[in-house]
Specification:
Number of strands: 15
Largest sheet: 3 strands, antiparallel
């Protein structure tokens, strides 16, 4: 095994820096004249015939805020462009909040998504850390809107989707939007000290841990309006981009990292209180790897499985690998268990050999079960969020959000 794949080596740190520099260079062409993000194609060329979506624009504001903190040339201007898009054409001045996106012709994409609003919060917190004008005001507005429309204090969870004018709430409830809410809430607590959002993140975490434990550590993704699991949701369309059928190993992996971050940041001086959450994170990670990694005779993590752990959609998504790199590194540093270092090295080798696009840059976003590039779910290379974070989180303090850790100089590159 080459040293550049192994955690805690100078070779690995150098390799990740090379990947990070490539990704930041790859994404430079994302802003439309309005600032909203174009969907990027295979070589980073904007696909201007696609919608300019709020969640992608927010992700780009987040990653280039990190780029600003790292000193990557041009990052500040790119953050400012994205913030202009978020505060401009993507913002609903009549009903409040943010549209799902705008079409190539400038028409609004209907509905108000919790998922997108969580990313508005994340973008604003990172923009604050990067010192960008307007980020503080954006965060204040985003939190006020989120608290009013999406957060349910009684349930300790967020709803999912409203219609555009906030008069009709969809009955669907989902864990994915709540996962990115946890990410955003932890970032708020870290960036501006609003600890009530860390407490809210913990309420969501407790729900997810309980649901997962009852379901053999496979997370139910979809729920009714009363938060009853809907385990058959989308069985006829199992590879849906945001609501796939069955268990999603990549989300089990991502939750494991976020649960670890929340527990360590909440119980800083109380290892005994944090321990059950670290154990839950290990269980989630191990279940996802057992079910998904090399599950069909080829390297890679399958997109989804059924509720017995049998692969349903065999395609490999780049974001799952990015999260696997992050979580294996974090669990290794937190627990000291060598198996996580071995997992990390295997993921790094797979990245280098199959998922990195060594010619056009960035990472292939979707591969089939034989690791051939396809685009049925994720054509092109929409953004650099997951991949960029995976070049930083493996060496960040495990109890701090990635942008804050970067701002504090706690990543060790």
């Amino acid at each position: 095994m080459e040293k550049k794949y192994q955690i805690d080596t100078e070779e690995n740190r150098k390799f990740l820096k090379e990947l990070r520099d490539d990704l930041l260079a790859f994404g430079h062409r994302f802003p439309a004249p309005s600032g909203a993000s174009y969907f990027l194609g295979d070589d980073g060329t904007p696909w201007k015939d696609r919608n300019r979506e709020t969640w992608i624009t927010c992700r780009m504001a987040h990653v280039y805020s990190i780029g600003t903190l790292l000193g990557h040339a041009g990052s500040g201007e790119l953050v400012d462009a994205a913030l202009r898009g978020i505060r401009g054409e993507l913002h609903d001045t009549k009903h409040g909040g943010w549209f799902a996106g705008v079409t190539p012709d400038g028409e609004i994409v209907p509905n108000k998504q919790c998922y997108a609003h969580a990313f508005v919060i994340l973008a604003a917190t990172s923009g604050i850390l990067a010192g960008r004008k307007g980020a503080k005001e954006l965060l204040e507005e985003a939190l006020q809107l989120y608290d009013l429309r999406f957060w349910n204090e009684e349930e300790g969870l967020a709803c999912d989707t409203w219609n555009t004018d906030f008069t009709v709430l969809d009955d669907y409830r989902g864990v994915n939007a709540n996962m990115h809410t946890v990410e955003a809430f932890l970032a708020v607590a870290d960036a501006v000290g609003k600890e009530e959002y860390r407490e809210r993140a913990g309420r969501i975490v407790n729900h997810v841990v309980a649901w997962s434990k009852e379901n053999h550590w496979r997370i139910p993704e979809h729920f009714t309006k009363d938060w009853e699991p809907d385990l058959e949701c989308n069985k006829e369309q199992p590879d849906d981009r945001f609501k796939p059928y069955g268990a999603t190993p990549g989300h089990g992996i991502e939750w494991a990292r976020l649960i670890t971050q929340w527990a360590l940041s909440t119980y800083k001086d109380n290892k005994e209180a944090a321990a059950p959450y670290i154990e839950a994170a290990e269980n989630l990670f191990q279940r996802a790897i057992e079910d998904g990694w090399n599950a069909d005779g080829a390297p890679g993590i399958v997109y989804t499985t059924d509720w017995d752990g049998k692969p349903v959609v065999h395609d490999r998504m780049h974001w799952t690998l990015a999260e696997a790199m992050n979580t294996s590194a974090i669990l290794y540093h937190v627990t000291g268990k060598e198996k996580y270092a071995e997992d990390y090295a295997a993921f790094m080798q797979y990245l280098d050999e199959d998922v990195l696009d060594h010619e056009s840059g960035s990472w292939f976003h979707q591969l089939d079960r034989e690791n051939h590039v396809i685009g049925t779910v994720w054509p092109g290379k929409s953004d650099i969020y997951h991949a960029l974070q995976a070049t930083l989180i493996p060496y960040c303090a495990p109890d701090i959000s990635v942008a804050k850790a970067t701002a504090m100089g706690l990543e060790k590159h």
